[in-house]
Amino acid sequence: MPRPCLSTVRPHWANPLHFQRRDLLRAVLLGSAAGLAACGGGGGGGSNAGPAPIGNDLPVAATDRRVKVSTTPDVSLQVRDWQRSDDGGPVLVLLAGLGGNARCFDSLAPALLAAGAASRVLAVSRRGYGLSDKPLPVKSATQHYEVDTLVDDLAALCDALGLTRVVLGGHSIAGNELTRFAGRFPERVRGLVYLDTTFDYTKDADTGGEDPPLNRRLDEPAPTPDDGRSMKAAIAYLRRKSKNWWPALEANLRDALDELADGSVRPNTPDAVETAMDTAAHRFSPDYRPVRAPALVVSALPFDQRDLFPWLERPLDAQTGRDAADFLRIFRRVRRADADRLAAALQTSHRLTLDHCNHTDFFMEREAEVVRAIQSMRWA
Predict the structure, then answer these.
(1) Looking at residue 311, what DSSP letter applies?
(2) Distance between CA atoms of residues 170 and 105, nearest Å
């Protein structure tokens, strides 16, 4: 069993928005014992409903759009668009983490609108995920999925929708796109919201010389063939692994899977696309020097074992308990140091650190605090 990786924002097995791909039901459908690439982990319980809307306004329904951003090859993106009747606030564009899609913001986006933090919020599924187009790489392993290509898509989307200046918000790996877009198009960016992203995905984490412990019990539970028999079974499997379960996570899952004639499900992102996106993202080293827009850095820290390993069944044996505690301690130190580097590179004092939460769903579980932090910003 490979050592869990601390060099990215989260071990893949602890990132619920990365499940939809290669590990999820591909492993199930092929009868593999490989684990899902996780939707968060989770031993039982969890919430079944998202937080109530913030403010006094009634929830605003999203308009679903497909926006063409490329002709070579043809690529249209899935966009969910929430708008208020007034235009008194900024336009926010939200990008999901690796493997995620626009539906993961189904709760945060209307909450931002209701709180007056924005006059319009758009959530985008980058190419390769959700209901967006998924061209296959041909000429190279990362063709069509380099960070600059994703940034070109974002610029084309803003052009198509008449958006001259926006606040960009990005979860996890989307920090690459925020930084690159702000460097290439500074005149189009009013502000940046980094939602638990990593300073540089090409760099190894500084663990202080400690290796995270190896213990198979810390690995997410592997799916069984039955977990891919139906959409209901897939949802049940992910719920068992998740700290919390929200309507937005379920919507995200549904848009990541194809339902076949026999009722079984499979990921709708091809293996080659997933590999191209993952490889390109982890080869990109961001340059923060050209970034001039005001930035907010939001960090999510696990506090206990359920935050990081919610699938662990209790009681734990003594060795697993010690290993889980050691991993959590190292992980917290790594993430704090990494967030400090990110804030320093962005030259910002605007930070929100949320303790006792999970990387995947912190902006759902702690929605009110995230909204207030964004609302308090003075954008350019």
Answers:
(1) T
(2) 11
CB-CB contact of 194 with 208 (8 Å): no
Give the dihedral of Cα atoms 167, 285, 347, 209; nearest 10 deg.
130
Q: What is the mean pLDDT of the chain?
A: 86
Q: CA 305, CA 351: separation in Å to the nearest integer?
A: 25
pLDDT: which is higher, 238 or 15: 238
Average pLDDT over residues 183-188: 98
C-alpha–C-alpha distance, residues 256 and 243, integer Å:
20
Select from 121, 107, 17, 127 the least CA-distant residue to 66: 127
pTM exceeds 0.90: no
Please check whether residue 175 is in contact with residue 281, taking contact to mean a CB–CB distance below 8 angstroms: no
Q: Summarize pLDDT for 315-328 with one digit per residue, the tens.
A: 999 999 999 999 99
Rounded Cα gap, residues 173 and 171, in angstroms: 6
- The answer to whether the beta carbons of residues 233 and 262 sit under 8 Å apart is no
Handedness of CA 279, 282, 287, 290 (dihedral sign): positive
Cα 123 to Cα 108: distance, rounded to the nearest angstrom: 10
What is the C-alpha to C-alpha distance for residues 221 and 218, in angstroms, rounded to an integer? 9
- CA-based end-to-end distance of the chain: 48
Return d(Cα 269, Cα 21) in angstroms, integer: 6
Q: Quick: pLDDT tens for 261-288.
A: 999 999 999 999 999 999 999 999 999 9
Calculate what percentage of the chain has a pLDDT beyond 90.
77
Q: Computed from CA positions of residues 347, 351, 354, 360, in that sequence, does the dihedral angle turn out positive or negative?
A: negative
Phi, psi of 159 (to 5 degrees): -60, -45
Q: What is the pLDDT of residue 53?
A: 41
Helix (H) or strand (E) holding 82: strand 74-83
